[in-house]
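SEQUENCE-TO-STRUCTURE ENTRY
===========================
What this section holds: a protein sequence and its matching fold, both as plain text.
Question of interest: how does this chain fold, as expressed in backbone structure tokens?
***
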Amino acid sequence: MKTIVIDAGHGGYDYGAVNGARYEKNDNLTIARLVAAELRRQGQHVIMTRDTDEYVPLLERSAISNRNNADMFVSLHRNAFTDPAANGMENYVQVNSPQSTRDYAQNVVDEINAAGGFADRGVKINNFSVLRNTRAPAMLLELGFISNAADNQAFDRNANAYASAITKGILKSLGETYNPNGGSGGGSDERRATATAIQRGLNNTYNAGLTVDGIYGPRTRTALVRALQIELNETGNAGLTVDGIFGQRTKSAIPALRRGARSNLVYILQALLFFKGYNLSVDGVYGPATEGIVREFQRDRGLTADGVAGANTFEALFK
């Protein structure tokens, strides 16, 4: 299993390129989420520099990769130009990158070409901050021009295919095998079984009404927030409105969970960690393995890595 950092370019008040009501930051996050999900389906450890609409400084994006000794860093963007006829896909590497990094970038380009829809503008060099300051092999992919109508149509129509293509290129570069059915050596089948078991548990215990599909989407996230609110009301008399919204009142009611705890709150914590791509047993028991995973997640997110899951850890898990 490799550690891969997926960077959705721009975010928050930094819109990136704009075409009418279409903002680059949103397209970047869309494809980043799809790539992260596909990599996790392949059994890889994925860290996203952002998975919400938030601004993350450029140096922090590289620092996330460097702190976690990532095997690869992939920054995802859309291009733009004043001439709306400009079109195509291109992949950038740092000016002084070794040939191996250029080969990795070419692998991703080749897979996207196989998926079709974009003109090939090739592998190029630049001195972008996220390339310059990241220790891992790094690339910055411009997935078509947001200023070009045909490129936008291709992006919208083929987003899932492009996510698979990017994943294939990454795995090929890292010496990993892409499995169309997910996982390496059956690992993804086990993860899907765990994911569906969590969803069934949310349905049975909290009447979540989820489709049991093993996919961590908005409805599953909302169900986990509701489950957390129910547990905080029952065990801590928090008096929360069970609305599935992780706000300040919910955050403030969260107790510190640590090794030795056994509860449904621990189960919810483990489910959140699992859906973020970490491998652990979701059993409601806060043992040494869970403590270690909490520390790993805290390091990934720049939190104090004390292995104690409190309000800030839960807030980061729900982002």
Notes: The first strand starts at residue 3 and ends at 8. Residues 187-318 form a domain with the Muramoyl-pentapeptide Carboxypeptidase; domain 1 fold (CATH 1.10.101.10). The chain has two domains: 3-173, 187-318. The beta strands are 3-8, 18-19, 22-23, 45-48, 72-79, 89-94, 120-126, 138-145.
